[in-house]
Amino acid sequence: MSLLRVVIADDDELTRGGIRLVLGALPGVEVVAEAGNGREARSAVDRFKPDVVLMDIRMPVVDGLAALRAITGPTRVIMLTTFGEEQYIDEALANGAAGFVLKSSAAEELGPALKAAAAGEMFLSPPVTRHAVTRLRGLGTAPSSDAGARLAAADLSEREAEVLRLLARGLSNTAISEKLVISESTVKTHVSRILLKLECENRVQAALLATQAGLLH
Known about the structure:
The chain has eleven helices and six strands. The chain is of the alpha/beta class. The chain has a six-stranded parallel beta sheet, sandwiched between helices. The chain is elongated, with a radius of gyration of 18 Å.
């Protein structure tokens, strides 16, 4: 199995150190370089050709969004974000971000995020999913018959539909497990089956489909 080569880009040295420790405990992951701003991140990508860049949004000299736009080729960029930075989500996704990881949840989310990136998929932290769904509701999107038909064709079990409804409200796997009084691993299994049945790549797509289908009404 080949190593997943990663660059960490964050202007805070302590944050980089914490992320490096988390990645050091993950099998098959190698940190090839660190960067303190977007310009250094771009140089590191050109030099080391990493598989993934973990990119802070707000950095001096060149910020993470500008660096994201400048990175081309197969390298995937996962944005590191904090609460209160939701305004950057749409722009980052529009410019090809492969996902969002909440810094406060990095220890739990970096492994799944890198696994998704390696598989060519997208990983979005639950608060990002919640933002996307809230934004869609704010736009006043009416239920879609196409989305309803797609949801019906997926033939979700009663429990899967219940998990999807909570997922669409922006709840994390931990919160769903507490709400339904089931293990977190069982929730993860349900989410995986839901994504497979709905042919969705990530939680946001599933949440938006559920919202458009009127599942939350």
